[in-house]
Each structure stands twice: as structure tokens, then as C-alpha cells.
Amino acid sequence: MGFHSSQMAEIRSVEAAEFRQAMRNLASGVAIVATGVGAARRGLTVSSVTSLCMDPPCLLVGINATSETHDAILANGRFGVSLLGSEQQDLALHFAGRDGVKGLERFSTASWDQGMLGVPLLDSGIGAMECVLHHHQMVGTHGLFIGRIVATRGGDGGPLVNFQGALRTLPQP
Fold first, then answer.
1. β-pair type (49-54, 57-64)
2. pLDDT value of position 10
3. CA 84/CA 10 separation, integer angstroms
4. Is 33 within 8 Å of 69 (Cβ atoms)?
5. Looking at residue 90, which CATH number applies to its domain?
6. Mean local confidence (pLDDT), 108-117
7. Edge-to-edge strands of the sheet including 127-139?
8. Which residues are CB-contacts of 5 (< 8 A; sequence separation ≥ 6)?
9. Does residue 36 fall inside a structural domain?
10. 12 in a structural domain
11. Element counts in the chain: helices (H) and strands (E)
């Protein structure tokens, strides 16, 4: 016998600060999600990318609905995920908007390629995936994007990781 959604609604959620504190201990890879061509390029730093399934190969990424990139992905129906390496902390902060730069200007500090889908992919990332938008769902303040992966590329180096509110690197074996 399962719970009905009305019963689940009666169970309170934790406060945002409590949730944020708990999630600080989940190490996450850092990536730039980008879409668009030319002057319409938009992108942002995320640490919410996860593998979803193998058949079809899909990933999941959560993006705040107030972000320009959120609406740009919906409009374009495709996006690229560039995995950041240990030497790319400044780029991660740049695409997180820490320096106030927005829109197309974010792409001026690194070299980008247009993948086979015409999405921006970081030349110097440790890996990249090109995705066709398979599904979008709003949950609270964020849009969940499920991307069907149609192309990948590898790179070299160790990952950039978000852990306990800081960008970190992993020791090399």
C-alpha cells in the first residue's frame, strides 16, 4: 500500500538553508552548459549534471528558470555540456556570473568550437557532450532538462569539483 500525493503534501520540506548545508557534502563535477549560435550564444556554470540512462543515452541538468540559458535551451532544443578541468576555476566563476558578465560576453575568455549540433563546446574541457532536448520539466525554481546525447568527445586532465561550497581538484593517482 503506497502513499497518495495528498498524504505526501502534508509532510513538510526542510528549510532552504538546511537543504543547502546537507548538499554541501555531495561532491559534484562542474560543467558549462551552453546553447545558441553567434550572438545568440548563452551559457552558465552548473554542478547539477548527472547521467540518467543508457537507452537512450541521456543526461539530466537542472537550471534556474531566471537564467538566460534556461529559455535559450528551450528555444534552441539543443545544448552542449563541457566538463571543466582542474585548471578552469576562473572560467567556472566567470560563467557563474561572479564577475557580472552576462550573455555573449561570457564566451570571450576561452576558445569555443561549434559541435555537430551547432552548440558551443569548450575546446579545453576534459570532455563534452552534445544533447538534443528530450524533455523539460519545471520543479520549483528550476527547469530540469533531459538531453539525449548525440555526440561526445574526450579530453585530458583531472576534474573540477564543487565540494563544501568551494571549487576543488582531486589528487592525481
1. antiparallel
2. 85
3. 41
4. yes
5. 2.30.110.10
6. 94
7. 42-46, 31-35, 78-83, 127-139, 142-154, 57-64, 49-54
8. none
9. yes
10. no
11. 4, 12
In the numeric block, which cell numbers belong to residue 122? 569548450
The range of the structural domain enclosing residue 40 comes to 29-160
What is the C-alpha separation between 56 and 147, in angstroms, rounded?
10
Query: Which region holds residue 157: left if phi is over 0, alpha if psi is between -120 and 50, else beta?
Result: left
Closest CA to 33 of 139, 108, 120: 120
* Rounded mean pLDDT, 122-127: 96
User: For the chain, what percent of residues have pLDDT higher than 90?
Assistant: 78
Over residues 110-126, mean pLDDT: 95
pLDDT at 134: 98
Q: In this structure, what is the dihedral angle of CA atoms 44, 137, 50, 99, given to the nearest 10 degrees?
A: 10
Number of domains comprising the chain: 1
Which tens digits make up the pLDDT trace of 46-105?
Answer: 999 999 999 999 999 999 999 999 999 999 999 999 999 999 999 999 999 999 899 999
Quick one: which H or E segment has residue 166? Answer: strand 166-169
Grid cell in block for residue 100: 557580472
Determine, yes or no, domain membership for 119.
yes
The confidence score (pLDDT) of residue 14 equals 87
Residue 124 lies in a domain: yes
